[in-house]
């Protein structure tokens, strides 16, 4: 099978995925790094693959030379995105005890206040890049609150997260420096919270770790904090940005949301299906030869399950290219499926809903500040997000929904 160039998946992803689904369920591709992988495109196969125990997340099952990912120190590699059962079951079970729906619900009101403060800062200008001025900082502040990061440390924390989430190609060493600094920071923070626990997730995770019935290792605690940062910030930034753009592109949808603010949760969920920030699930490696859609894939090769393609599959979602708030989205795979379903899905939804509610309430005539064709998407197949989202509003006018 001749490898497919992935460039069209960046420049025109949904039309390209539609063509691939029509042509076949599984395709050999050459990734941007020049390494081969198998891309699974149809809903039924992707859903099965997400919960197939033969498809391992553990990089140790990858064949030599088949995979090159983000290199992390061993302490940070001990995370849920690189684990299979039984380790995954144990760690996730302990985290779930601390990361409860009640904790997420308690964050909504403080987050709404923070959203208001961020909007206060940009409102007088009448325009802003919504990603850097609003959607970017809000999830970082939420994660700081969630983990109980002291106010005095947040400036450094923001600098490190900015380096990791928007790396400077001209300074690749900065990423390594930021990772080392954050490891040192989290090590000290865990020590201080063990001595003086607070009302935060990290303190609760430490308490779970110290139970005699189960334990999170020091590396697991550090990697969980790091994972919450990376997994809880960047996707939420782009979920907010993509949803704002969808509303601006679909005036009838904007009118419906303003008329019925309770529909905002459905809007976030539907846009997450239609144009979510995660086009691909975390890579998998078959522990044995597997057959997907009639295609045999050798053990150890890289398998990419396309969430973006699956969520636009007409066999699962009729008129999948259309935003429909009233469709059945119970099979939405945007946050994964099965034992690896995103642990922070409820947090991401809450953050996006809160951010959008505050934004739409504040600005009644929000619009793009540049021609639509000037917007640019990040040049990667692994994330779906805008590089910037310039918007403007009438700074003299206030409105509610």
Please give a structural write-up.
- By secondary structure, this protein is of the alpha+beta class.
- It has a single domain, classed as Cytochrome P450 (Cytochrome p450), CATH 1.10.630.10.
- Helix content is 49%, strand content 8%.
- It contains 16 helices and 11 strands.
- The strands form 4 sheets. The chain has a 4-stranded mixed β-sheet, with helices on one face.
- A hairpin with a 2-residue loop joins strand 7 and strand 8.
- Helix 5 packs across helix 11 and helix 12 packs parallel to helix 16.
- Keywords: Heme, Iron, Metal-binding, Monooxygenase, Oxidoreductase.
- Pfam families: p450.
Summarize the structure.
This protein has helices spanning 7-11, 13-23, 43-50, 74-77, 87-98, 101-122, 130-135, 137-147, 154-165, 173-195, 201-209, 218-249, 251-259, 264-275, 307-310, 345-362; strands at 4-5, 26-30, 36-40, 55-56, 127-129, 285-286, 290-292, 295-297, 303-305, 367-368, 390-392. By secondary structure, it is an alpha+beta fold.
Descriptive keywords:
alpha+beta, 3-stranded antiparallel beta sheet, globular, oxidoreductase, 401 residues, monooxygenase, Cytochrome p450, 4-stranded mixed beta sheet, 16 helices
Lay out the secondary structure.
Elements: E1 4-5, H1 7-11, H2 13-23, E2 26-30, E3 36-40, H3 43-50, E4 55-56, H4 74-77, H5 87-98, H6 101-122, E5 127-129, H7 130-135, H8 137-147, H9 154-165, H10 173-195, H11 201-209, H12 218-249, H13 251-259, H14 264-275, E6 285-286, E7 290-292, E8 295-297, E9 303-305, H15 307-310, H16 345-362, E10 367-368, E11 390-392
Parallel strand pairs: 1-2, 3-9
Antiparallel strand pairs: 2-3, 4-6, 5-11, 7-8, 10-11
Pfam families: p450
Keywords: Heme, Iron, Metal-binding, Monooxygenase, Oxidoreductase
Family: Belongs to the cytochrome P450 family.
């Amino acid at each position: 099978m001749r490898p497919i160039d992935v460039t069209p998946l960046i420049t025109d992803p949904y039309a390209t995925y539609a063509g691939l689904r029509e042509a076949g369920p599984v395709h050999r591709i050459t990734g941007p790094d020049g390494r081969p992988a198998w891309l699974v495109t149809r809903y039924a196969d992707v859903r099965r693959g997400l919960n197939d125990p033969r498809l391992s997340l553990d990089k140790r099952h990858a064949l030599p030379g088949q995979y090159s990912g983000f290199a992390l120190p061993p302490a940070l590699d001990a995370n849920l995105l690189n684990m299979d059962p039984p380790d995954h079951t144990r760690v996730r079970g302990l985290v779930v005890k601390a990361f409860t729906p009640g904790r997420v619900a308690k964050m909504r009101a403080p987050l709404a206040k923070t959203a208001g403060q961020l909007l206060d800062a940009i409102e007088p200008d009448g325009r802003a890049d919504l990603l850097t001025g609003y959607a970017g900082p809000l999830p970082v502040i939420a994660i700081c609150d969630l983990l109980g990061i002291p106010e005095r440390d947040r400036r450094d924390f923001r600098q490190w997260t900015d380096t990791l989430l928007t790396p400077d190609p001209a300074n690749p060493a900065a990423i390594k420096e930021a990772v080392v600094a954050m490891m040192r920071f989290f090590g000290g923070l865990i020590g201080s919270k063990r001595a003086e626990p607070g009302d935060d997730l990290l303190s609760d995770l430490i308490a779970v770790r110290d139970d005699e019935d189960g334990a999170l290792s020091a590396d697991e605690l550090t990697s969980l904090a790091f994972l919450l940062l990376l997994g809880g910030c960047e996707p939420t930034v782009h979920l907010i940005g993509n949803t704002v753009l969808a509303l601006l592109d679909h005036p009838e949808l904007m009118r419906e949301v303003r008329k019925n603010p309770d529909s905002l949760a459905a809007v976030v969920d539907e846009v997450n299906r239609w144009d979510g920030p995660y086009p691909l699930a975390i890579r998998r490696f078959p522990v044995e030869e597997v057959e997907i859609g009639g295609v045999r894939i050798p053990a150890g090769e890289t398998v990419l399950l396309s969430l973006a393609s699956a969520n636009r599959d007409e066999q699962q979602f009729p008129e999948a290219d259309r935003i429909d708030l009233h469709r059945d989205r119970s099979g939405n795979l945007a946050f994964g499926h099965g034992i690896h379903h995103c642990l922070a899905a409820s947090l991401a939804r809450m953050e996006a809903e809160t951010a959008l509610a505050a934004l739409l309430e504040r600005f009644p005539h929000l619009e793009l500040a540049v021609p639509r064709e000037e917007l640019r998407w990040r040049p990667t197949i692994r994330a779906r997000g805008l590089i910037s989202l310039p918007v403007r509003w009438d700074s003299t006018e206030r409105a509610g929904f």
